[in-house]
Structures are given as structure tokens and as C-alpha cells.
Amino acid sequence: MKEGGILVGIIVAFDRLEKTPSTTERSPRFSVVGEVRKQHGVPAVSILTLSDIIEHLKSLGTEDDLRGLEEYR
Fold it and tell me: Which of 26, 55, 57, 59 is the most buried (most CB within 10 A)?
């Protein structure tokens, strides 16, 4: 790194569980966080994920919000 630091890991505050675009119709799509981990060669961990929020909303019973998040995922 330019300033002399060493990257040892990445912390993601909120992982929306997005996937990378596929290059062909049949090519696999990988998680964006996984690709960052692979590209930089360091661990990447998430504090909160979209799945965590969906699970919490299930316990609250707000079906409209839950349906929208499930469609996003």
C-alpha cells in the first residue's frame, strides 16, 4: 500500500448478498464479498447480511416488507 499499511482483512457492515454478473447464460454467479476476498487474498467478514434482516422480519410478521426483500434477494 502507498501509505505503508498492510491489508489483513475486510469487514463489511452490511452484505446485501449481491452476486457478480455472469459472463454467459450458464456461467456461475459468485458473491461479491467472495470475489473481493479472492481478489485481495484476505478474509472478508460481514457484520450483518440481508438474510439476517429477512430472518428478523419473519419473527415480526411484516409480510409486505418481507416479500419485497425476498424478491430482491
Answer: 57
Question: Rounded to whole angstroms, how far apart are CA atoms 63 and 10?
Answer: 33
pLDDT tens column, 37-66: 999 999 999 999 989 988 888 888 677 777
Torsions phi, psi for 10 (to 5 deg): -130, 135
The span from the CA of 36 to the CA of 50, in Å, is: 18
The sign one gets for the Cα dihedral 60, 55, 63, 12 is: positive
Q: Would you say the pTM of this structure is higher than 0.85?
A: no
C-alpha cell recorded at residue 8 = 489483513
